[in-house]
Amino acid sequence: MPETVLIVGGGPAGLEAARAVADLGGRVVLVERREVLGGTPDEANYAALTPHLGSAQEALDRLRAGVGRPEVEVLLGSTVTACRGSVGDFTVTVSGPDGAGREVGAGAVVVATGFTHFDPGRETQMYGYYEFPDVITLPDAEKMLKEHRFVRPSTGEPPRSVAFIQCVGSRDRRIGNEYCSKVCCGVASKEAIEIRRLLPDCKVYIFYIDMRMYGYWENQIYWPAQEQYNVNYIRGIVTEIVGKGDRLLMKGEDTTMGRPLEVLMDVIVLSVGMEPSRGTREIAGILGLEQNRYGFIAAPGEPMDPISTSVPGIYVAGAAAGPRDLEDTMGTAGAAAARALGVIRSARPAAATAGA
Amino acid sequence: MPETVLIVGGGPAGLEAARAVADLGGRVVLVERREVLGGTPDEANYAALTPHLGSAQEALDRLRAGVGRPEVEVLLGSTVTACRGSVGDFTVTVSGPDGAGREVGAGAVVVATGFTHFDPGRETQMYGYYEFPDVITLPDAEKMLKEHRFVRPSTGEPPRSVAFIQCVGSRDRRIGNEYCSKVCCGVASKEAIEIRRLLPDCKVYIFYIDMRMYGYWENQIYWPAQEQYNVNYIRGIVTEIVGKGDRLLMKGEDTTMGRPLEVLMDVIVLSVGMEPSRGTREIAGILGLEQNRYGFIAAPGEPMDPISTSVPGIYVAGAAAGPRDLEDTMGTAGAAAARALGVIRSARPAAATAGA
User: What is the value of ipTM here, to two decimals?
Assistant: First the structure.
């Protein structure tokens, strides 16, 4: 039996897991819904990565190069539509771009279907994302920064003032996303630095509940943003955005000062959090994987085992299991690869091993 | 050439990496300074793990069972004292309990030497850890909780009031530890829940700068602590602890109310952060690994590559690279195992492979 691991999703987690399996002498079938590899960092036009502002393009190129080898078969424009069997002997149906189904034999499966950015439209107009062109999201800002520009969408001119609003779609019991998405504090601070580099005369504010600069991020992003780039951090709650002339009036409360807040901005960036991607929701149903209350793939053995799903032989890597930064994603990807190949080698009947 | 990975450190990261290498068909030599496996969770008497309060003992037993197999040679009471060679062909000198040195050939090395708890004595008496017996640390509290009790060390009686002070030894520029240790918010909240379970009449307060309940921890620990266990969270800065009668007077500022804070407590728990362990500092010198400004092992390729050190063929897993929670630790351990074995298989000359 070939030591084949089926990997679902061609983003950073899936690409890293594929490379790791191949490095270990295993075979991979990598299934990706889109016509290109790279996942959300590619689809959402990531420019510079948090925290070091390294090039996302170069990072993705390295990941793609890691799977350009005979041991890895990449199926683009393809999705998993059915699965039967059990650990050591799964038969997975993959539907290609022409709609034709193909059966793939695999000893184990790694789910790396990732996240999607929270859609602020769901929050019934509160922040006016679908009403005001100058209210944008972190990925909208990222797309402009990738083109080395940052403008007011309504006019095409550089803004004089930009505000980030943190925790949009995260830590919010009303919409059911009580979790913290982990990366938005870092990503917003990174984009704030980039905007200040591009537009030295533009004031940039970050309105936060608390800044979760865990690990080294405080020194890597927060202090440079404050001290080198003069980004202004204001602890506050923004409750409403209304149009005023051709600008945006942000209303809320400055919770450090304990007083009402009303400031005019040219551009407002909503720091949207992570939700399970469509692929993550769908694959859970197809593979029969337990999900948590938010729709992410459950890892019942966490924290000691963050990669095993509820189905033996099926593992989860990266943000398909919940909000994860790139470090967490790459760690769990390598771990899932090792576990998937390890379980195949353990599950293989002794006779087959002897005969190999 | 046998596919041997030398793993330094027998805590969770080292044990998980060893199991993963063995599952993949590789051979492991695991070097542990102490006479028992388990690392800091064993040495510091961890009782219940964050966030689910699962048994640390059971988790360690599972990890130890994972290395009880012929492919894993465990060298207890041993340390690495020298290393020569390069990726694919290291020769590592291991000194055993009798002081005798032994040379081990290994294709790759995984450093899993972990962290140590910050020693609050260094902060020149500010919190009186070495002055007042009822000022203790997170691991001191953990040790009592493992014995299913929580008392005032000065009297042996149950306290009526307990306060946790967050960020002791973390996020502190004066002592040079600017980083956030990631886990202390969660661990303090977990211990607070355990104290409230043991002592329903004891008031428990957590004095914090901000609560970094990233990912799912807000729902998993923070809300249960608040809603089920009535732990009191107070945003404040504690500047001084003085004795008053047989109790402790905490002085500082309630930063939500913006007013001075003076409260009497029976026990004060310092939520100490992570620093590099002695083993981490020493192994960096012996193996010639770049360290970051705090003494942790540098991973120059992070965030895309959180496990490669500055020396090819040597990888880092777990908290030897900086503050990490158990999920991060187990993820990087599996990833380091995969990378170590993968690099050996890639580095092996084609002739040797053909002849194998």
Answer: 0.92
